[in-house]
Structure formats: C-alpha cells, structure tokens
Specification:
By secondary structure, the protein is mainly alpha-helical. The chain has 8 helices and no strands. The longest helix has 40 residues. The chain is rod-shaped and about 85 Å long.
Length: 209
C-alpha cells in the first residue's frame, strides 16, 4: 500500500516487535491516527476507521496481535473474487424499452384474464411503439411490437389476434375522448365568440342612441 509510505510501514514493523500487548495497542492507535492524517480523503468515506484498521492489518502482513474494534480481514477474504454482476434483462434489440416496460409486463402477467388485463397489455404495446420510434427514429410496424412483447413476456402475453394497435379498444377510447375534448373546446370557443359579438352589438346600439 504505497499511499501510506515507508515511515508508516516502519512504524507497523516496530509495533509488531513490542513485547506487551498494551504497548502494541497504544502504538496501533497512534498509527491509525497518523494514517488518517496522511490520507485525509478517507474520512469522506463511510466507515473510514474500519478501513484504516483493515489497512493496518494488511501492512502488518496479517500478523499483528492487537485489540482491534473491528474484525481483521483474512487473506482468503481479500483474495476472493467479486461475484459476477448480473446484466440487465433488456439487452440488444430491447434495451430502449426500459425497465418500466418489464415491470408493466410482469404486472399484466399477474392479472386475471379480463378487460383490465387486455387494456394494460394494449397500454404496454402502445408505449413500446413510442419508445421504439423515439429511439430508432423510424416507424415500426405493429407486428414487430407484438413479436417483441411475446418475447419479453416469454410468450405469456400475445396480441397477435389484434390486426393493429389502431383498431384496439384502448386506441378508440383514447382518441374518442380526445375528439370529444376537442369538440367541447370548439363549441365553447364558438359560444364565447357569439356572446362577445352580441355584447359588442348591444354596446354599439346604445352608443348610437
């Protein structure tokens, strides 16, 4: 551990040679404080004191008889290779769909067959289509989305019976609501304009009198 330098290494070797455990404990505490001063950046880390004691034991080559407030690591623990990290399920062609799509798919799988399940599946497919178009910057056909959905759900969700997303119930519901809102807005605007014209006509008539 070259970051601590030769002086601390010599102090550790001296500590190991002290005859009494009390003396070794006292010197080990002093070395820990000195190590903290030499590497102040460690103080910003969590459990930095624990790390300093581990470093002290490593510098002593795992041969230091002192009372540590923390268990010393063994050589086997330090040589143990970290566990292999699991890669996300969404890789390759599917990475742009995101984790939220996987969560929705799992939710849809758990639902019992019925209108709620069908609506959620169609919502998932619509969102997958949006994600695909945004990421790839190209139009995707519905059969591609249906195939990806089947694969991501391990064949447990299937929309191949629907000719297209545009003909699904949720598409019509969403667009009908949107059209109704647009019609309501237009009707409201027309009423406001008519009332405004009537008000202006009344004011003009009064002014002429």
């Amino acid at each position: 551990m070259p970051e601590y330098g030769r002086i601390i290494q010599q102090l550790v070797e001296r500590c190991k040679e002290l005859p009494s455990k009390e003396e070794r404990n006292e010197m080990a505490m002093a070395i820990i404080d000195f190590m903290g001063q030499r590497n102040p950046q460690l103080r910003d880390e969590e459990n930095y004191k624990h790390k300093l004691w581990d470093h002290l034991y490593i510098l002593a080559n795992h041969d230091l008889d002192v009372d540590s407030p923390y268990p010393f690591p063994t050589k086997e623990q330090l040589e143990e290779k970290p566990k292999r990290m699991e890669y996300p399920k969404l890789q390759g062609d599917f990475k742009f769909y995101g984790k939220s799509i996987l969560q929705l798919i799992e939710k849809a799988i758990e639902l019992e067959a019925g209108d709620e399940k069908e609506a959620l599946i169609e919502v998932i497919a619509n969102n997958m289509k949006k994600s695909y178009n945004v990421y790839n910057k190209e139009h995707v056909t519905d059969d591609v989305i249906f195939r990806h959905l089947k694969e991501l759900s391990e064949n447990r969700l299937d929309l191949t019976g629907i000719e297209s997303l545009e003909k699904s119930k949720i598409y019509y519901t969403t667009n009908n609501n949107r059209n109704n809102n647009n019609n309501n807005n237009r009707n409201s605007n027309n009423k406001n304009q008519t009332n405004k014209r009537r008000h202006n006509n009344n004011n003009n008539h009064k002014n002429r009198k």
